[in-house]
Specification:
- Six copies of one chain form a homohexamer.
- The first copy, chain A, contains six helices and no strands.
- The first copy, chain A, has 130 residues and is mainly α.
- Chain A has two domains: 58 residues, AhpD-like, CATH 1.20.1290; 72 residues, AhpD-like, CATH 1.20.1290.
- Chain A is elongated and about 55 Å long.
- The mean pLDDT of chain A is 96.
- At the A-B interface, helix 2, helix 3, helix 4, helix 5 and helix 6 of A face helix 2, helix 3, helix 4, helix 5 and helix 6 of B.
Chain lengths: 130, 130, 130, 130, 130, 130
């Protein structure tokens, strides 16, 4: 499947290499994971994605661990195994404890259940929520 | 659609009324919203859901606002409008600011995007993530 | 939105009219609901969908009520409000009781919850399930 | 990934062991599958999930095979491979035939197709379905 | 729900106004639709989203109508009614005919059906597709 | 898992064999992939699916490559790995270039992101889109 074949740094285009370099500098690592190597097939999307991630995942009104927990909850709901694995690792690096992971999972499971109960019972929006 | 017709307190079964009472006591309110009135059609599910919510949404390793943010992120990903409305209101009551809402939404949007990029490019799990 | 404007019998193409006629004959009704009027914009898809539904929803190893329950469970999981409304009505016509609806919903809610728990905990397939 | 590492009976907490014991007693088996070993990381969620499953999947207005078929249909729609494998095995144990599985799959496939046709054509709810 | 209250041009922050201005210039319109007014609550996300859309939806290896068709197919699969309405209008403006819409919908419906058949039957990847 | 065990031509029922034969004739190949071997467990669904695919994926108002791109975008959104692999291969055979794949993926990623932004901000339908 040539369209998704990961591209190593040595084989990347200059635009993709610039993103590789910035990821390694910002994250203080000497390699990038397969997600970036795959996106190197489309340097414009790679660059746009990296710029967005840097901006969105930075500390703000929410701390980085909370942002990672939200990221994992979405990835679990969408069934993206790679995303769950990589962001669980990232979250752990940023301070997520096993208890935090377990509570995030419990909320995620329950939200998925009640989302469907609401939908199936066709619950009308309360006046107070309009 | 009689299966989903909300049931008011006066018309509820004793088992459903007990749940109504507990919700009003715990939340210090004098009514419950439509979700619970709909679930009153199935008192066993109503009770089970309420017991789970009380346990799961309580403060723990994660604070209540963080739990609500995760709940909203899942509900947005599943497209449950009622759930988004009711839990956004709940989150605001517990201290969520507009900035926190906006950052949660930005993470949720980006996670949905990158989940699909990972899936479409068929990114293989890095050795370091196994 | 002209692409989705429902087409009434009087304005339908001959191929679409033939499907209208067959639906009314098979179901012993004198009108069809909006789904079919919308599909009349694409008579080939309308015909194909009707032929499939006739074949798939007919009694077989599963009875018609069980098939409708499965249909609703899927529609709830996908969040299709129209589909839930129309198939809940169809199921009731075929003998679904409120208790059956409630139990289907409880299973649907729980399956959505456990699906996500399995995914988030990255549960490996047991040897016995391979 | 320590957060999801399955926990064997010998290493489980007393609360988790109590759930292991009840599962083995109720199901008349001498081991539990990986789902439960993973949930043993969060004994409260493990207990809550097991209590719900016992209650929801028990015979009622719907027989156990019908409940498993609904469970599989939801799991297929959500793309949870482990869930499909484990509940297909459970369903077979409870009496599901290959013909029943095939018909459930045909309904699930068609519901997923028509859910999207309804959504894309923006079909308005018929007066008779309100 | 203050978090989602649309913000009109007159009330927008300077950063949001700059995006409003650019949208109106590029699209040669004198107003923007509600999506942008809602995003004006979070000018950083508004700007990022608009920059991405300009770049991604521009003509390239795929023409603009094809890109809109893909956008609609995804929105249908996710059940986003607003997105379907706005991008169907955009696609029509760019030259999508009713026949193109109907064929896109037929493919979308069938892909959703076969996606589930593949998943439920747990089809193993052919050697030739690895 | 006998329900999903692929059935080879030599072991297939006459109805399934007729579909095998037609696929091999139409596609000018001497084997079929695992999807069809799995569906051979349910010859009626196999035949119906093949007839639909032949009709829907044929050239029309949209060319075959555009149809495959839409198919992949849906499969990515649903997370169906097998479907992505098989239709990416099919699309490449019909003329999809790596640039077309990359642009389809960029649109798919962005649509998934904006679908959720619209949903979470509860954007009201503009008058002009009704």
């Amino acid at each position: 499947m040539p369209y998704a074949k990961p591209i190593e740094y040595a084989d990347a285009s200059p635009e993709a290499r610039a993103v590789f370099d910035d990821i390694m500098t910002v994250r203080k690592v000497d390699t990038v994971n397969n997600f970036w190597k795959s996106l190197a097939n489309d340097p414009a999307t790679m660059r746009r994605t990296w710029e967005s991630i840097k901006e969105i995942m930075a500390p703000g009104a929410l701390d980085p661990v909370t942002k990672e927990l939200i990221y994992i909850a979405v990835s679990v709901t969408n069934g993206c195994e790679y995303c769950i694995a990589s962001h669980t690792a990232a979250a752990a690096n940023k301070g997520m404890t096993p208890e935090m992971f377990a509570e995030m999972m419990a909320v995620t499971g329950m939200a998925n259940e009640t989302n469907r109960l609401v939908t199936g019972y066709r619950v009308a929006l309360d006046e107070s929520l309009r």
